[in-house]
Amino acid sequence: MRRFLATGWNRQISVFEDKEAQLSPEPAWAGGTPHCDDIITMDYCSPYYLATGSFDGLTVVWNTDTERIVAQFRSQLKRRDQILTSATLKSPTSQHPPSATNSLSTSSRPASRRLSSYRLKSASSSHLHHVPVDKLLFLKTRVKSKARGQSTLVTSEGGHAFFWDMFSSGPPLGLCPSLRILSYCGRYCFFSL
């Protein structure tokens, strides 16, 4: 029987069985909810790997047979935000448009979560937050061969591409700044510069 997986604002993975009579979610995903914010991207690698990336910057690789976590990754890339109050919006410093050359662009964020009109370049009461994972892709040939010490997962976070080895939960194996993953087709991974 086929299963459909859905993710989103509730930070959970929902499983739907392909039944003729009804379409309703199964009981909760056994792996729990390690994400602290919306899951905004996912990718599947046959026969049983699922990767989810969230707005809080966490990437989780799952085994879909056991519904357990295989690996977790979080880059050290962070963005500096300040959500402005109505008093701050009236101040002269808030009249400057956000910098178009900012390397941590908000273009990777979903439209419903963009804060570009409420962003300051520098602020005294700002907070550091992890950059969202806006796209992730398995390098499927390497995953199937269980290649260790090689990149098996690529994530796009804040205009940077990170290359991870999902068989070891260590730091990223590589980083390419100013890239955005567009798609993965066969043996090729397409980036925009």
Automatic annotation (TrEMBL):
Per the record, where are the segments of Polar residues compositional bias? 86-110
Going by the UniProt record, its keywords in alphabetical order are: Repeat
Location of region: Disordered:
86-111
- InterPro entries in UniProt: WD-EF-hand_domain, WD40/YVTN_repeat-like_dom_sf, WD40_repeat_dom_sf
**Lineage of the organism:** Eukaryota, Metazoa, Porifera, Demospongiae, Heteroscleromorpha
- In its UniProt entry, what is this protein called? WD repeat-containing protein 49
Q: Which organism is it from?
A: Geodia barretti
The residues the entry assigns to the signal sequence are none
